[in-house]
Amino acid sequence: MQMRFFTLTDYPVGLPDRTLFTLETQTLPELDEGEVRIRNRWLSVDPYMRGRMSGQRTYVAPFELGKPMEGGAVGEVIASKDAHFKEGDLVSHMGGWRDIAQLPASGVQKLPNIDVPEQAFLGVLGMPGMTAWAGLNLIAECQSSDKVLVSAASGAVGSLVVQLAKAKGCHVVGIAGAEHKLEWLASRGVEAVSYRNKNAEELERAIAQASPEGVDVYFENVGGICLEAALGQLNEHARIAVCGMIGSYNDTAPAPGPSNLSQLVVRKARMQGFIVADHWHRYADFLDEVGPQVAAGQIDYQETVEETLERTPDAFLALFEGANTGKMIVKL
Amino acid sequence: MQMRFFTLTDYPVGLPDRTLFTLETQTLPELDEGEVRIRNRWLSVDPYMRGRMSGQRTYVAPFELGKPMEGGAVGEVIASKDAHFKEGDLVSHMGGWRDIAQLPASGVQKLPNIDVPEQAFLGVLGMPGMTAWAGLNLIAECQSSDKVLVSAASGAVGSLVVQLAKAKGCHVVGIAGAEHKLEWLASRGVEAVSYRNKNAEELERAIAQASPEGVDVYFENVGGICLEAALGQLNEHARIAVCGMIGSYNDTAPAPGPSNLSQLVVRKARMQGFIVADHWHRYADFLDEVGPQVAAGQIDYQETVEETLERTPDAFLALFEGANTGKMIVKL
Q1: Is residue B53 within 8 Å of residue B250, measured between CB atoms?
Q2: Residue A200 backbone dihedrals phi, psi, to 5 degrees
Q3: How big is the A-B interface in CB pairs under 8 Å?
Q4: Would you say the ipTM is above 0.90?
Q5: Lowest mean pLDDT among A36-40, A250-254, B221-225, B325-329
Q6: How far from B152 is each of A184, B71, B236, B312, CA to CA, in Å?
Q7: How many Å lie between the alpha carbon of B309 and the closest alpha carbon of chain A?
Q8: How far is A260 from chain B (nearest CA, A)?
């Protein structure tokens, strides 16, 4: 059986060029004992993957040049030599960026029995959803009385953060750019603030207007002027959960950080980076809490869907243009 | 009775000019019920006081122009209309920047019964010492296996941080400038790193050499290139206790922050500002632990002593030139 998959031909500097992604074909070997073969139906593309294209180890090893790339995927088992899986099982795994995945069963999970579309396990009930939940609850220790600020608030992670915070009863401000994103935020009861055509000072004023009682929790996805503006509006004992700083992922030279970091002292505030993988042992708690809300339609999760394996790199690159609302996925 | 005291005549921009501090004289009113009168013997000058000269409320109200300035002081009760104090009692209080203080007894503490020179309660066993202990233990949650980095490592706070960390058994690196400060650090078993004539990258290399196993705890007193260099060497789950950023206290324009803040995500690290006042309920725990070490001569606390009330502003301004080793105090 043939597998079609993407490889990276070189580590990019700055925004990756489309030509660095090469679609290759390979004949799969016979299935070994303990392996499963999966026909992927949905592939995930995520900002964190840019970090794996750097050639430097960060919190996850870089992609190996010329080898199949990896990423979250949902598919159907089409052959199994492991007792836990049988043909027809729907599963999630990290063998993405390809059409057919052949993997050790230890790296494959059956989809939980929750009545949602299967691709939700790449988004609202998968890694991005778990990231939102862990950042808000385990890192920022968000309480119902908190004033919450979220950057990239309509993205895969941010769009769940704002809704989970609203469900707690928090006052929530979301930063986004495009008009339809601001409208979506407003439709969820979120105070929407645009970063467009603003410097840090102007953005800070807009945040102050949208959240007159300051910011207790800031969920950071962007960095740059968003962070500087947020620091200026922190309340005492504020908590910043740093999920990512997509604003700088394609920088070719170091960009200066916020000039007002000393606000952390003045406001006795905490800023904490986190990686969802460290909290995966809480996935069942997350599913228990958020799964029923999603199944009941109380969470409005957005998806931006590209189609065909060939378009996977394009879907990935579109993340850096803010082209997605909610989770960006590829349908095979 | 006359009180001589300093007032601030205007809020400075940048490094305060000596002429902004005016020595005034006032006749004290009769002692009220519940008040005590204290002849100050020692005055404290501290970097945080610069924040009170800004005209803006931060975590403490600004100094009022034309009113007696305030600060830590140690003195002897010379008159009391409060049952808890009698003439001859040695006390600490916040009525500094003056020779005679007349205060409500509620703001006055008797010196603890520990066999150390009285001025130690302005330094190693006072606010700076408590700051070091709280930052290291309560904020950074320092453990014996941690690799510890301290900026302004020979200062009033830093010099105690490095010794408390050494006493725990930690590997400790201290950043300082002047040769005699580096020598003092080395004499305490601390790996001394100079920031002089280095950019952030060069300082980071020097830290990497001095601490080949990275940095688990960074005690931040300076900001600027020290922070940027430290961020580059963090281990996973590192904790940064942000005590202050003296490097920027006199900036007239915002200076950019570190370009590598996203290391907080990569290293899943925490950066937390704190104010010692929030932790004062733990002062007895601090005294229990550190008091005996100081009394036994195990802690080498340095003092830089100016003399006479008139020189108080000069002592304060010298802090920003790095002129002090250890605690800067004024002897009256």
Answers
A1: no
A2: -60, -40
A3: 111
A4: no
A5: A250-254
A6: 49, 22, 24, 22
A7: 30
A8: 7
CA distance A58 to chain B (A): 6
* pLDDT reported for residue A148: 98
User: Is there a contact between A257 and B231 (Cβ–Cβ < 8 Å)?
Assistant: no
Cβ(A323)–Cβ(A34) below 8 Å: no
The closest of B78, B99, B74 to B36, measured between CA atoms, is B78
Region A63-90 average pLDDT: 96
Q: Which pLDDT value is given to residue A316? A: 97
CA-CA distance, B50 to B53, in Å (whole number)? 5
Sign of the Cα torsion B130, B131, B136, B137 reads positive
Q: Which residues of B touch A59 (CB under 8 A)?
A: 236, 265-268
Mean pLDDT across chain B: 94
Distance separating alpha carbons of residues A89 and B245, to the nearest angstrom: 56
Residue contact A227–B264, C-beta within 8 A: no
Cα nearest neighbour of B59 on chain A: A266
Most B CBs within 10 A among A131, A235, A263, A270, hence the mutation to make, goes to: A270
DSSP for B25-92, please give it: EEEPPPPPTTEEEEEEEEEE--GGGGGGGSSS-SSSPPPPTTSPP-B-EEEEEEEE-STT--TT-EEE
Task: Using alpha carbons, list the distances in angstroms from residue A294 to A100, A148, A162, A218, A324.
Answer: 29, 21, 14, 24, 20
Residue B117 CA to residue B112 CA, distance in Å, equals 11
Cα distance between residue A57 and residue A60, in whole Å: 6
CATH number of A2-123+302-331: 3.90.180.10
For B205-215, the pLDDT digits (tens) are 999 999 999 99
pLDDT value of position B57: 67
Position of tokens 């945040």? A207
The reply to whether residue A59 touches residue B266, judged by beta carbons under 8 angstroms, is yes
Which position has the token pair 């004062």? B280
Beta bridge partners of B219: B150, B241
Residue with tokens 């949902």: A74
Taking any CB pair shorter than 8 Å as contact, residues of chain B touching chain A are 51, 58-59, 223, 227, 236, 242-245, 248, 254-275, 278
**Sequence-distant (≥ 6) Cβ neighbours of residue A119 within 8 angstroms:** A41, A42, A74, A303, A329, A331
Name the minimum distance, in Å, from the CA of A233 to any CA of chain B: 12
Q: What is the DSSP string of A211-275?
A: -TT-EEEEEESS-HHHHHHHHTTEEEEEEEEE---GGGTT-SSPPPB-TTTTHHHHTT-EEEE--
Cα-Cα-Cα-Cα torsion B57, B313, B94, B299, nearest 10 degrees, comes to 110
User: pLDDT, tens digit, for every residue of B274-317?
Assistant: 999 999 999 999 999 999 999 999 999 989 999 999 999 999 99
Let me know the angle formed at the C-alpha of B286 by B285 and B290, rounded to the nearest 5 degrees.
Answer: 125
Check residue A57 and give its pLDDT: 67
* pLDDT score for A292: 94
SS3 (DSSP) at A79 = strand
Residues of chain B with pLDDT under 70: 57-59, 251
Q: B2-123+301-331 has which CATH code?
A: 3.90.180.10
Q: What is the dihedral of CA B43, B49, B50, B51, to 10 degrees?
A: -170
Each domain of chain A, given as residue ranges in start order, spans 2-123+302-331, 127-277
Helices (H), A125-199: 127-133, 158-168, 179-187
* Count of CA atoms in the C-beta half-sphere (13 A) of B7: 12
- Assess if CATH 3.40.50.720 describes domain A127-277: yes
8 Å CB contact of B270 and A270:
yes
